[in-house]
């Protein structure tokens, strides 16, 4: 994340200086496989309607009054390339975080296109670059890359396999449901990604353990963070 933010800093600053002068879009459309991740973060904050379209097609109404944003960490997905090419053809303002020499970047070339260059191929790092840009053009919440990068550093240290199991949160979490069926709850749109497709449920799926995935009811979500 730190590397992506540093490498994209100059291009992002240039894009922000240019796009801050643009009028507020009618709607923001997140396209591509990672569109739901952007929606989970941005939908509660975005001052205009926000739509996620993970497939290769855009809504029929999308056009020159709208922004199309996309995360393409690898830049090689043909569906993403198709969606971004369609956005360019319709005259939409296009913002893509992807490698500058990639299939998606090639299809995104256009008069109203902004490329935020990425190099690591990491989904979360690419998302932070995009969120930083959207925050500075008034379409999203603040996303400080250093704060986001520090959080997994702290988790990695507290959950290190070399740390005493008696005070290791990861070991305690692994032991607690050993003889039970885990139920993974998401207490918000963003937290619900953990139960659905995120890094909480995925290890359980790979281990072939039975599990249940649910989004917490509204009342439970208000009472505290996701479990």
Protein model, in words:
It is a single chain. The two termini are 26 Å apart. Helix 1 (2-19) runs parallel beside helix 5 (123-136). The chain is an alpha/beta fold and 227 residues long. Residues 219-227 have low confidence and may be disordered. Helix 4 links the parallel strand 4 and strand 5 (113-117). Helices cover 42% and strands 14% of the residues.
Query: Proportion of β residues?
Result: 5-15%
Topology as H/E string? Answer: HEHEEHEHEHHHEHHEH
Distance between the termini: 26 Å
Characterize the largest beta sheet: strand count, sense, and whether it forms a barrel: 5 strands, parallel
Can you count the beta strands?
A: 7
Instruction: Please state the CA-atom Rg, rounded to the nearest Å.
Output: 19 Å
- What number is the mean pLDDT? 82
What is the tally of helical segments? 10
Helical content stands at 40-55%
Strand order of the largest sheet: 2-1-3-4-5
Q: Pick out the low-confidence regions.
A: 219-227
Give me the secondary-structure topology.
Elements: H1 2-19, E1 28-31, H2 35-42, E2 50-53, E3 67-71, H3 78-90, E4 93-98, H4 103-108, E5 113-117, H5 123-136, H6 145-158, H7 169-175, E6 183-186, H8 193-196, H9 201-206, E7 212-215, H10 218-223
Parallel strand pairs: 1-2, 1-3, 3-4, 4-5, 6-7
Helix pairs in contact: 1-5
């Amino acid at each position: 994340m730190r590397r992506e933010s540093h490498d994209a800093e100059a291009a992002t600053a240039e894009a922000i200086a240019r796009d801050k002068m643009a009028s507020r879009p009618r709607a923001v459309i997140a396209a591509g496989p990672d569109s739901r991740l952007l929606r989970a973060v941005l939908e509660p904050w975005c001052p205009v309607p926000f739509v996620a379209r993970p497939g290769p097609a855009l809504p029929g109404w999308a056009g020159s009054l709208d922004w199309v944003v996309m995360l393409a960490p690898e830049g090689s997905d043909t569906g993403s390339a198709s969606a971004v090419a369609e956005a360019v053809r319709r005259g939409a303002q296009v913002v893509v975080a992807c490698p500058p020499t990639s299939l998606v970047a090639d299809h995104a070339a256009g008069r109203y296109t902004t490329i935020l260059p990425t190099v690591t191929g990491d989904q979360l790092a690419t998302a932070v670059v995009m969120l930083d840009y959207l925050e500075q053009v008034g379409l999203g919440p603040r996303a400080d890359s250093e704060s986001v990068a520090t959080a997994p550093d702290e988790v990695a240290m507290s959950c290190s396999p070399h740390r005493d199991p008696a005070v290791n949160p990861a070991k305690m979490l692994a032991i607690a449901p050993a003889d039970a069926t885990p139920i993974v709850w998401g207490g918000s749109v963003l937290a619900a990604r953990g139960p659905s497709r995120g890094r909480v449920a995925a290890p359980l799926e790979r281990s072939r353990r039975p599990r249940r995935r649910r989004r917490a009811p509204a009342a439970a979500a208000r009472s505290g963070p996701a479990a």
